[in-house]
Amino acid sequence: MSTPSPIRIAAVLSADHRRRLMAFAREVNFAEDARIFEEGEPAESFWIVRSGTVTLEVPMPGHRRAATVENLGTGELVGWSWLFPPYVWQLSAHAMTPVRAYEFDAKRVRMLMDADPAFGSALGHWVGRVLAHRLHETRVRLMDLYAPRSASGSLPL
């Protein structure tokens, strides 16, 4: 089964919509191993990776380490919980490597989305495609972890 490629902003938003979104961008840096956000905290910002790798994780009760959901790189969206009430992070994220990113104030972007329905629709469709991709990736990982295996350890045909 082939995996769809990550949904990068340049592939989805028009040049005008990218320009309007980027007017709200602020350049930020995260050191290697820096926590970007934690599950359950208010989702007040989101990021687009400029360079480096961000890992999305879900904390596992009773385990020392969180389970990795996905690793994100250049051009990818970090965070989607900012778009949906109650605006609380559903996952955690940290910088696997030094990360340079564009940071956006979620409330200001939501206000722009409400003021300009075409922009709001385009941005909402982008985030929806990102979510669909991440759900697919999570499904593939779960199938790999929990699919029945033959005695040799391979998947039955």
TrEMBL record:
Cyclic nucleotide-binding domain location, by residue? 9-113
Name the Pfam families for this protein: cNMP_binding
**SUPFAM superfamilies assigned:** cAMP-binding domain-like (SSF51206)
In terms of superkingdom, the source organism counts as Bacteria
Please give the PANTHER family that the UniProt record associates with this protein. Answer: CRP FAMILY TRANSCRIPTIONAL REGULATORY PROTEIN, HTH-TYPE TRANSCRIPTIONAL REGULATOR ARCR
Q: What is this protein called?
A: Cyclic nucleotide-binding domain-containing protein
What is the source species? Answer: Streptomyces antimicrobicus
